[in-house]
Amino acid sequence: MTGIVLAAGQGKRMKSRFPKVVHKILDRPMVNWVISALRQAGSDRIVVVTGFEAAMVEAVLDKDIISVRQTPQLGTGHAVMTALDYLDDEDIVVIAGDEPLVLPSTLKKLVSRRIEGDFDVVFLTMKPADPTGYGRVVKDGKKIKIVEHRDADSETRMIDEVNSAIYAFKGSFLSSAIKSLSNNNDQNEYYLTDTISLADKADTIVVENAQEVLGVNDRIQLAEINKIAQKRINVEHMRNGVTIVDPDTCYIGPEVEIGADTVIEPMVFLSGKTRIGNCCSIGPLTRIDSSVIGDDVEILRSEVSNAEVHSGARVGPFSRLRPGAVVMNEAHVGNFVELKKTILGRGSKAQHLTYLGDTDVGEGVNIGAGTITCNYDGKRKHRTEIGDGAFIGSNTSLVAPVRIGKNSVTAAGSAITEDVPPDSLAFGRARQVVKEGKYSKNRGQEENS
User: Fold this and answer.
1) Where are the coiled-coil regions (predicted)?
2) CATH 3.90.550.10 domain span(s) along the chain
3) Known binder of ligand: residue 24?
4) What class has domain 219-426?
5) 3-class DSSP state for residue 347?
6) pLDDT (tens digit per residue) in 57-98
7) pTM of structure
8) How far apart are the first and last CA of the chain?
9) Residue 114 assigned to a binding site
């Protein structure tokens, strides 16, 4: 099955320099919601017709998606003409790139109906409470035509079934019909809807839930569809055994996976290909993107991006795990701690006010408050290695590249610039000097005397 996505328009009412279809629903560009539905419905070839700022649209597409450019943009029929080389499949679905809520099951139903009835085209319709502005579906036996609202007489406007612009075509019919289109109209454009009247045998399916075919024309509708997508995803997770304390304030992307008995607290943002295990506690006020979280993990008021947190670990509050951070089993990352390209070993702890960058931390290590790894020399990044069981004193600066051996201790306030052997105590600070009476509580009295 071939899916053709019409994504060439600008979407002027969005008031944006970006094409409408790259605006995001939750964390996914709108056009990719449509592509995902087509994939799940069985499309093994997807063609996206681009036009306005085509490069921006093409940049968000997966590598296996075919893109063709419609220049200039002369209507929906002309868009399909642009994809003429890909109409060699007998099962073709044509859909607009701004209908992100359509379900794969609906597309499957549409295609199955066309095949079973050997129709030239079957398209999705709806019956809104107010059909004003929509193209009316006029039926005469097996023949159907679509009459746009502006062209409809009073009797035709009484018809309540309207076009949703989602079609399942027989490829041989579409490739022939598309060549027969004319642009002899007020807009001088080629309309895909005109192919419907050319079909000898056509049919419609009225969508059960009109939300599926909602389009996006402005930022208000974008927000409305975001809300619908948010609710749809959250409900599905709750049905699968996830507790979401306040679904209205949790935003979960369509590719996120969450295990049973995990609790999602309010104001949580989960995006990308994030995987969260069973029996976790996430939030409140936590953001996780494209990360892997094990079982029985607690993450509180923290930021996690392209990182791993293994089972039994604790993160937060106010922690930041940057790309490449790995928190091993039973390890703890505490308040105002930042990890980047760092492995924090099993059972190790960095509880307070710490930066660990480009660091390998062994098992059972304690990182004192205020510790930092000085990993950048102005030109290159260097790694720090901390062996199992080491104790890093508060306010230690580890100047990379440097190794701290197993079970070694660094004294508080040290700047460690050389490797420390195992089972050693390292000092790297100036000797304390005290000069009594040199600083009076009343500096003015001292100066006068």
Assistant:
1) none
2) 2-213
3) no
4) mainly beta
5) coil
6) 999 999 999 999 999 999 999 999 999 999 999 999 999 999
7) 0.91
8) 95
9) no
